[in-house]
Amino acid sequence: MEIHPPHGPIHTKKDFFINLLTITVGILIALSLEGLITWNHHGALVREARSNLANEINTNRRTMETYLQDIHKRQSELSLVASTMRELQQKKDVPTNLEMTYTFHTFDSAAWHTATTSGAVTYMNYEELQHYTDIYDGQYAFQALQGDALRSTADLTSRLQLMAPQRMGRLRKDLKTWPTERFEEIERRAEEELLATQLLEALAKSTLEAYGKISPQP
Length: 218
Fold this sequence. Notes:
By secondary structure, the chain is mostly helical. About 75% of the residues lie in helices and about 0% in strands. The radius of gyration is 32 Å and the shape is rod-shaped.
């Protein structure tokens, strides 16, 4: 903003006050225009951030819905492992072709990182910002739990590989000679992992509920 001195000399108090008033009005107009431009810029920044976040969250919502379908299958597998181990502890002759599957799901967060680094979040109201923060904090917690579950699945799978169908010919008669503690340990791990999947399922559902409060952008 530039302020130019009046043109020509000032001879009277009236000239002085007229020029002072002119300068004051000019400054106020300039400040108002600058504020309006800044306000429009901030508004555009927030609108773009909202649009990007809505689209990203909609993508993550579909990913989470897929995860819920996968986790129900995994819970059935874990329940079968636990019940099979209980029957083996009783020396029963049961099928041991047990399978464990696990799919690791990733969630996008580029729009959230962009909104925070661009400063767009600073122009959102507190309630709106808190809602976005809760969504992405929930995603980070969910992915951390997924990582723990994946490691547990790998450990459990390695124990179950000894009972794989291709090894049954050699091991069927040996299974009844295995110590009960061995089956108890596998059962315990399967039960712990089942509890972990239930926690993941609850977190997934609460995150989906939060997603639902954000409308996808056209």
